[in-house]
């Protein structure tokens, strides 16, 4: 990303679902020079979303350059043409074959049974759109900073095996950082901006924290700094975390996507504005799980761990969460090995079984999962 800071940077949002529209909308409400394009596959829906964003921005006194375009990620050549035509500095991938919240629309008992499989077995639904998008990026000849919303904790390390990992992910580890920051600030009697939290955690832990206030059988790594001094040892960290689903509980489910959108913006806005920031991102540079990341003004970045934590320790932490999320291993060639206990739930509920998956098999697995879930949903019923 080499546009001068004073020129409008181009941001393409590839995927016009809930999270893509939210992020597109918020990026347009800024005095910073930005050129935004929302890309989806439904002409009517994308046009309406782009116009809504433009009109809301005008109503509030902003005049961003916003427009829209069409593609289907399954058509790699067409997607590559759209990327080449716009030449984005930043590309936000907001596409999945099945969003994480869809199973929550099932009848309650069916949801609880299927939820016990954790997230790992659903990997094909998120990996395939990201893989196709990255193939399109490569074909386009453009080199944007690519930020992915769909399960980057596992998608990125799998795709890194073939050189197709997006640069950064969003959400997951980042979603709990504001709550932890608020809890620490209140405990110490400080303003939130005086507290610097550095959290190392896998998606499994990130999701569990807001529901249970602990990392369960997995591990997490947490460091807290005040005035550039580590104060972690002064805090009762387990007690602070227990407050997340209690005093610091927040709206979840689909309405709670506002938190995920905010996490996405914490990554995308510095990239769009060419400024440095300390962020939290899953899948940074193809890494397993989520880490604190120092983002530089030129769009490059590096993982920055809590004080005293070695890279080896951080790796052990996130891999403990990966196993609990239902993925035993991601091999060097990108083959994903699933945890038997998680896959047993999928087999019991959906009739779906997959011990391990090569990248070349991912699309067929995604199609099978979609068909089996559709059949399951038709018999299990929707939530009341």
Radius of gyration: 20 Å
What is the helix tally? 13
Task: Tell me the distance between the termini.
Answer: 48 Å
The secondary-structure class comes to alpha/beta
Total beta strand runs: 15
Amount of helix:
40-55%
- What shape does the CA trace take? globular
Task: Tell me the strand order in the biggest sheet.
Answer: 3-2-1-4-5-6
Mean pLDDT: 96
Low-confidence runs (pLDDT<50, min 5 residues)? none
Q: What's the helix-strand series?
A: EHEHEHEHHEHEHEHEEHHEEEHEEHEH
Described by strand count, sense and barrel closure, the largest sheet is:
6 strands, parallel
Strand content: 15-25%
Structure overview:
With 384 residues, the protein is an alpha/beta fold. Helix content is 42%, strand content 17%. It has 13 helices and 15 strands. The strands form four sheets. Strands 3-2-1-4-5-6 form a six-stranded parallel sheet, with helices on both faces. Strand 10 and strand 11 (290-295) form a beta hairpin. Helix 1 (18-28) crosses helix 10 (257-273). It is globular and about 55 Å long. The model has no long low-confidence stretch (mean pLDDT 96).
């Amino acid at each position: 990303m080499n546009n001068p800071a004073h020129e409008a940077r181009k941001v393409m949002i590839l995927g016009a679902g809930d999270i893509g529209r939210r992020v597109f909308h918020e990026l347009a409400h800024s005095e910073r020079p930005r050129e935004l394009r929302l890309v989806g596959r439904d002409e009517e829906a994308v046009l309406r979303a782009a116009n809504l964003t433009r009109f809301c921005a005008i109503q509030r006194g902003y005049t961003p350059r916003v427009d829209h375009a069409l593609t289907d990620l399954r058509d790699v050549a067409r997607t590559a043409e759209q990327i080449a035509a716009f030449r984005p500095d930043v590309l936000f991938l907001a596409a999945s074959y099945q969003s994480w919240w869809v199973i929550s629309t099932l009848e309650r008992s069916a949801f609880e049974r299927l939820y016990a499989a954790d997230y790992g077995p659903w990997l094909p639904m998120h990996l395939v759109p990201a893989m196709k998008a990255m193939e399109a990026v490569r074909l386009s000849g453009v080199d944007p900073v690519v930020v992915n919303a769909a399960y980057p904790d596992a998608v990125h390390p799998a795709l890194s095996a073939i050189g197709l990992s997006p640069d950064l992910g969003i959400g997951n580890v980042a979603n709990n950082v504001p709550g932890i920051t608020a809890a620490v600030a209140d405990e110490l009697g400080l303003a939130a901006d005086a507290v610097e939290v550095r959290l190392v955690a896998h998606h499994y832990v990130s999701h569990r924290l807001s529901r249970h206030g602990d990392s369960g059988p997995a591990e997490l790594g947490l460091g807290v700094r005040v005035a550039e001094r580590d104060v972690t040892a002064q805090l009762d960290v387990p007690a602070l975390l227990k407050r997340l689903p209690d005093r610091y509980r927040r709206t979840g489910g689909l309405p709670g996507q506002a938190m995920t959108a905010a996490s996405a913006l914490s990554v995308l806005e510095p990239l769009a504005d060419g400024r440095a920031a300390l962020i939290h991102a899953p899948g940074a540079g193809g890494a397993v799980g989520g880490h604190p990341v120092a983002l530089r003004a030129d769009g490059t970045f590096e993982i920055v761990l809590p004080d005293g934590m070695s890279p080896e320790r951080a790796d052990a932490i996130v891999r403990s969460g990966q196993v609990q999320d239902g993925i035993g291993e991601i091999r060097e060639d990108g083959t994903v090995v699933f945890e038997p206990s998680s896959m047993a739930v999928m087999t019991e509920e959906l009739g779906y079984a997959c011990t391990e998956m090569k990248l070349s098999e991912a699309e067929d697995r995604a199609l099978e999962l979609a068909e089996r879930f559709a059949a399951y949903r038709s018999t299990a019923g929707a939530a009341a």
